[in-house]
Amino acid sequence: METKVELQRFYPTELEVANIYQTDTEIRIKMSARSKSCTCPKCGTISEHPHGTYERKVQDLPILGKSTWLLVNTYEYQCDNPDCDVTTFAGTINGFLNYYSRMTDRCADFICTLALETSCEGCYRICKTMNLKTSGDSVVRLLTKQYKLQEENKCSSVIGVDDFAFKKRHTYGTIIVDGATHKPVAILDGQDGSALKEWLARNKHVRTVTRDRASAYASAIQEILPDAMQIADRFHLHQNLLEAIKNTVNSIVPVDIKIPKDYDKSGQETGFQGTNEGKKNPMLRG
């Protein structure tokens, strides 16, 4: 018996699938919004006065390797709150489509998850093979937007701080990771510690910070949270240990090591040939 899977069941009930168009590389799904009310993004007032309609072109997750675009005929609303400075705003579908977003929430979540597991450029290359339209810079902007929306007070009292490159050798930022969940809680601009100071001032419940050896981070933590415990992370702890071992060995072993000549029982020279010149300690090179 032949069965069919209705496309409608993969989309919220607030959206009605009207028509489907497809080519060899692309699928376009014509949809219309059923709801005629929406919440103002600024004041939270529910508006039931549609101002007009317009078509939104929104990217969704690919279907069978084809780029998928939703052509959503949605309402634009007027805010009924006289004290609100928002005049009109686009309709939304909670958990699926945000205000003025160019992709669905599930599509944005997929890209962010992939970028965190790989890298922004790696995510872009993988998305390209899937016919998911994006770029390395777009992934960075999407990550920044997504994680700025998170509630910062949800992090535990243990955090990790490190720098990273938005664009290597050009633009750097600071990432803060929850030490309990091992998930990012904030992405900040710059690596000079100024943005970190502002974040710490809003999160004074933090008691333990793991960080690298950057003096900017150490100073910021000491200034804002003087009672917090600062811990070197494993990588930099090993790096400190190796440097200490190297300095100790170099203080004991001379720069030039003389290699003596070998003689057999008859007194004839064997083995080493040439002048008795010293070889330099390899640990002191460079």
TrEMBL record:
Domain (Transposase IS204/IS1001/IS1096/IS1165 DDE) ranges: 159-248
Positions of region (Disordered): 264-286
Alphabetical list of InterPro entries matching this protein: Transpos_ISL3, Transposase_DDE, Transposase_Znf
Taxonomy, superkingdom: Bacteria
Domain spans labelled Transposase IS204/IS1001/IS1096/IS1165 zinc-finger: 38-81
Entry-linked PANTHER family: TRANSPOSASE FOR INSERTION SEQUENCE ELEMENT IS1557
Protein name: Transposase
Native species: Enterocloster aldenensis
